[in-house]
Specification:
This protein is mostly beta strands and 140 residues long. Helices cover 9% and strands 13% of the residues. It has one domain.
């Protein structure tokens, strides 16, 4: 998810910096103990709403069209998460397709498609790509 820091530190190759689609597509929910009221570097409580006895969601992500309250900028152009250092685990754990892990992430494609953005391409050279498991290697 949107990966620009509040201080504006940028990695020019990170596709999330010119995207932000997943922050304006999915419901972003997590355990309330990820909030600042439970830990010093947690998500500011005032940016969340309770959705159950133990879970909260980022404001702006419960209904369509979704847009997280912490997202700044224009999706598909330049975006940043205004609480980057305090963002929740689903935000930290959401990978961009082909980026970092080298794996295809259909949910990234879906978020981008929701904003009329094309899926990210696999730019890893063929010689360096990890082939999918053969039938005999695949877990049963
Ligand atoms: S939809 Fe994919 S590329 Fe866009 S910000 Fe999210 S993870 Fe990054
Ligand atoms: S908290 Fe930040 S990374 Fe998470 S959905 Fe909102 S803008 Fe995106």
């Amino acid at each position: 998810m949107s990966d620009t820091t509040a201080e504006g530190v940028r990695d020019s190759e990170n596709p999330c910096l010119s995207c932000g689609a997943c922050c304006a597509h999915f419901r972003v929910s997590f355990h309330w103990m990820e909030c600042a009221s439970a830990k010093p570097d947690g998500v500011p409580d005032e940016l969340t709403t309770a959705i159950g006895p133990h879970r909260v969601a980022m404001l702006g992500t419960l209904a369509k069209p979704a847009r997280c309250i912490a997202l700044e900028g224009e999706v598909g152009k330049t975006t940043r998460c205004t609480i980057h250092a305090q963002r929740s685990s689903p935000c930290r754990d959401f990978p961009a397709s082909w980026w970092e892990t080298g794996e295809h992430v259909p949910e990234c494609d879906a978020a981008r498609a929701g904003h009329n953005l094309p899926p990210l391409r696999n730019t890893t050279p063929l010689s360096e790509q990890i082939p999918p498991p053969t039938a005999s290697e695949a877990p049963s």
